[in-house]
Structure formats: structure tokens, C-alpha cells
Amino acid sequence: MSVVSVLPFLKPIHMRAPISPGRPRRHTLPASEFRSLSPEDAISVFEIEREAFISVSGECPLHLDEVRHFLTLCPELSLGWFEEGRLVAFIIGSLWDQERLTTDALTLHKPHGSIVHIHVLAVHRTFRQQGKGSILMWRYLQYLRCLPYVRRVVLMCEDFLVPFYQKSGFKAQGPCEVTVGPLTFIEMQCPVRGHAFMRRNSGC
Predict the structure, then answer these.
(1) Do 146 and 204 meet the contact criterion of CB atoms below 8 Å apart?
(2) What span, in angstroms and rounded, lies between the C-alpha atoms of 166 and 145?
(3) In the chain, is it the N or the C terminus that has fewer CB atoms within a 10 Å radius of its CB?
(4) Above 60 in pLDDT, residue 160?
(5) Quick count: other Cβ atoms within 10 Å of Cβ 54?
């Protein structure tokens, strides 16, 4: 269900520094680029994820084979932020078809679902504390609002991350039934349907 080619928010978006008058042009990578991820990005994704999560919780949301799995099945539900060709932050999602998350949601992609389950958002350690996570989430939600089959977005997170996601429009739904070892989570949801005005004025 690839829709990348017709949706503006996942077309590669480049931000370049201005070129001074008289300065010769050089063929360089774009300063900043947002695009969907592919299985070829899996190792870079996993390296960032492993560093971000192992030191905090001791667990990765997705193992390398699971990263490849989702980037093969539903790459259009991922978003990577690249700086000069280097991955600095990413989101990986898949489709889900039930009101609340269950253990199956950790590994399954439901192609006919209307709910996007965000498995992981991570930022490279050298780019943290710069607001990149919030910016990436904003761009991702704007993109999802262009997908007519998506009704809402769900995720699960530890207690200390609830305020971060609340700033992006997510609301806590209470404890998640999914646990990973001793870790427990809060389930959060954000509606994306009902934004007809935004869709009409966003080029979707």
C-alpha cells in the first residue's frame, strides 16, 4: 500500500543553506531531508534505537529483524530525518485494527487497519535536546492526516515520556495491557481523522 509518490509530506524535502553571490555551486548532499525509510536503512535505524533505549530501559522496541520486517511491509508508515545524508532521527509505524494495543501489535502489520501504531521514535545521541523529536512527530502527524484510511495514531510509552507526547496532541488512555519484562506502559492516542480543512489546504 505504497502512497509515498503522491503525498507531499513524504516527498523528499530538502533545506539548503543560501549560496553567496559569486560563490561557485558545489554538488553536495541536502543539508536536511525527510523521507520514508527502506530496508536498506535498517542498520542505521537499529544503531540509533539500540543506543537510545538500551541505556534507559534495557530493551529495544524493535530488534533488527523486526525493523527490516516493518520497513519491508509498510515503509510508507516510517519517516526518517537525514542531515547531509546521515540519519539523525526516525519514526517507524504500522497499521493496527483494534481499539487498544495487544501483544500482537508489537510484531504485526494489519494492512486493512485504520489505526497507525507508532513502534518507535528515536533521535541520534548527538542531536538530542534540539527539539528534533517534536519536529519529526509534527511532520509525521501532518503526513498521516493526508492518508484517508488513517483514523488515529496510538503508541505506548513509559510514564516519564507522557508529557512529551501530550505536547504533540496525544492523550493518555490508561495503562497498556502490553508489558515487556518488568516494564509497564501508558497507552496514548491522537486522532487524525476529521481534519478535512487541513487536508483541503495542505496539498493532500
Answers:
(1) yes
(2) 18
(3) N
(4) yes
(5) 11
